[in-house]
Structure formats: C-alpha cells, structure tokens
C-alpha cells in the first residue's frame, strides 16, 4: 500500500490524494464528500469497515476501546472521545493550552482542560472554578 500520510493545514494529519498534491484532513476522509479529484478518499476499500479499513495514521483510539476519532481531532480542544482522552493524558500527548485558550481543570461541557478565550467573561460558566468568568 502507498503511504498516504501528509500534513494538512495547521500541521494536522491528512490523507494524500492520487494527485500527490491534495492533502485531505483526516476527519474529511470517508465523510461522503469527495475531496480528492478521483474520489479515492471515499472508496469502499478505504471506508468499508471504519476504523479498521483506514490507515493507522488517520485514527486515534480513545482510552475506551469502543471509541475512536480521526487523528486530526486529537488535541483540537474539543472532547471528541467523550472522556477527554483525545485532549489529556499520555495517549494524546497534547501541548499545553495555546494563547487562544484559557487553562482550567476540570471544565464543564464539551471542553477538557482548556476553553477558548472567546468564552471568557461571557456570563456562562465553563470552568468548574468559574475562573473563566472572574480571572480570565
């Protein structure tokens, strides 16, 4: 099999199309929309038995073995696994919160250890400690 690994925008893991130029972000592979000119990102061979049919570099396995997410959803700030294993801990190996994020743990709702700074002082509690409303 051809190595189809590539780096899409923001250095996110991607799938290289047959044209050897187009790099489709992992989470846009097998989404019923052809992003490659010849549609190879939606072929049955690739998408027939998710996640087993996908190349390993496109898949991140959550700490709960019943769940997986696309590799570009790891460290994106959102709790895609449902248990934050794609955002925190040794499996994910995410860098600390970037400048656009406020670090607080635990957080409420869909985030894990960082919330977007745009949510600071918006009148809604996102951090368990309320730090996003009073300190951030």
TrEMBL record:
Span of domain LDLRAD1-like C-terminal: 95-134
InterPro entries named in the record: LDL_receptor-like_sf (IPR036055), LDLR_class-A_CS (IPR023415), LDLRAD1_C (IPR057430), LDrepeatLR_classA_rpt (IPR002172)
Domain of life: Eukaryota
Keyword vocabulary terms for this entry: Disulfide bond
Protein's UniProt name: LRAD1 protein
Organism annotation: Uria aalge (Common mure)
Gene giving rise to this polypeptide: Ldlrad1
């Amino acid at each position: 099999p051809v190595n189809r690994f590539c780096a899409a925008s923001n250095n996110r893991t991607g799938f290289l199309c047959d044209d050897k130029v187009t790099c489709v972000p992992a989470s846009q592979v097998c989404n019923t929309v052809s992003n490659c000119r010849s549609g190879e990102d939606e072929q049955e061979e690739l998408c027939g038995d998710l996640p087993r049919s996908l190349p390993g570099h496109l898949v991140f396995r959550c700490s709960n073995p019943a769940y997986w997410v696309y590799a570009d959803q790891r460290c994106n700030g959102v709790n895609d696994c449902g248990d934050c294993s794609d955002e925190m801990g040794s499996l994910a190996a995410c860098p600390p919160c970037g400048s656009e994020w406020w670090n607080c743990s635990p957080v409420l709702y869909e985030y894990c250890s960082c919330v977007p700074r745009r949510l600071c002082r918006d009148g809604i509690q996102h951090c368990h400690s309320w730090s996003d409303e009073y300190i951030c």
